[in-house]
Amino acid sequence: VMDGLIDGARRGLADAGVSSVELFRVPGAFELPVACSRLAASYDAVVALGVVIRGGTPHFDYICQAATMGLTDVSVRTGVPVGFGVLTCDDDLQALDRAGLEGSSEDKGHEAATAAVATAVTLRVAQA
To answer: What amino acid positions are annotated as catalytic residues?
Structure first.
């Protein structure tokens, strides 16, 4: 699933004319906000990708809420767009269907990258 998200984000960035892309990996979705917060100062936009599959405990809810709120905070606090590509799925099939893989109905990595770039462009135009 992560490979599909990353490939989709790379395609989205390439489609938008972005030629310089750096990939940083963290252990899980919970760690995305701190990584994006630190990286935001050095980039026009960041794209956060991840996948959380619902299990039998409330852990899913805590992680999804922390990632969502944390990434929202990063973008608002820093003014740097954060493309939100964190899949929050009930099962593996849902994740595969959203990962941009062959046969997937959605490409959330591409969508997250496209949204981040579009927002960065909008903010740049607004500052001009």
So the answer is: 59
